[in-house]
Amino acid sequence: MRHDPTAATARRLLTALAAPPDGTATSQAADGLRSTADEIRAFLAEADEHDTEAVPSEVLHEWRNALTRFQRELEQTAPDEWSRWRLPGTWLDSHLRLRSLIAHEVGKAYWDDRSEIRYAEIDIERYLWGAR
Length: 132
Description:
The chain has 6 helices and 2 strands; from the N terminus they run ααβαααβα. By secondary structure, the chain is mainly alpha-helical. It is globular. The mean pLDDT is about 90.
């Protein structure tokens, strides 16, 4: 059974995936992820306030790049933090799912030559519940 989210539901689920890192994650990479999560959450809050139906693919591209950069940095420079937080249900698990989701949507936008992606068309089920 497939759930067809509204734009508002999709924005709220994306916001949940952009959970801020745990306060005990103190590396510079975790700070970068915290800043990125704050940026994403602020953007989505504004979109929710204005009931925006779509997100520019360029914005998603920027988010993907930032998440990728700081996740790699965390893995390479703070392997203890990476190991501690790379578990199901943690903030890092949420960020890894979010990056995967965004990368998928950015790829689709590229191949379909779309400058924006409708929130309601984002396949969130696949990344939250593993629907295949």
